[in-house]
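ARCHIVE CARD
Drawer: 12
Card no.: 0347
Subject: one protein chain, sequence and derived structure
Cross-reference: see card 0346
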Amino acid sequence: MSRVSVTYENHIAHVRLTRADKMNAVDQDMITAVIDAGNEVAASDARAVIVSGEGKAFCAGIDISGLSGMIGKDPAELLMPRTHGGGTTNQWQEFAMVWSRMDIPVIAAVHGVCFGAGIQLALGADIRIASPDAKFAVMEMKWGIVPDMGGMVLLPRLVRSDVMRRMTYTAEPVGAEQAERWGLLTEIADDPLAAAQALAETIAGKSPSAIRAAKRLIGVAETQNAVAVLDAESREQVDLMGKPHQMEVVAAAFGKRAAVFK
């Protein structure tokens, strides 16, 4: 049975977890399908991505029943090989990191529970929009393990150290309002999928080359020193100014029409 669907409309990719009967709990097939979906979207002409879950929840986390297949196996053989992301991740980490590396904006539309693997998947997005009843948890400590699907790369980018420690140490769920106060969420919306769609349409209407450049530049700004950031600003701007996409933006503005990009 399919675990993920990928569709495209007006340069927006919709990636949906489709294991609704299990609240989109993650098993091996889901891990493989999510990674494949990420690679497919990365190779497409999409200008924005929306990741969502069908049914009652975004993602309930790892399907514990599937962990029985790991009994008796050497954890190092399962987790240590760097098999994805150009040798930077294992498959569990690639589940979230394939979205973090995407060169176009990724929006997570979250409803219901977003636990464990689910929160790490959502953290891989640029922007997270959640319903008022959504709940979030770094769930691994409940099972005597630690977050290992990219969470320790992605979570520190959003929240203070004490918040990260509290969530990791306790595994306690928090509501959407608290998650927004802590910085986990971009915004709360009664219909997060509709809000994500509206935002994706706005992004898809901008210069595709400028959006990609902006995402690259933000990545530099978040990780490197001032000298590197200032250099990146100049280089990205030089590559944009006077080029077809930028000229179309200017022409559309003066013509009071929507820009059309080739």
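Annotation on reverse: The mean pLDDT is 93. The radius of gyration is 19 Å.
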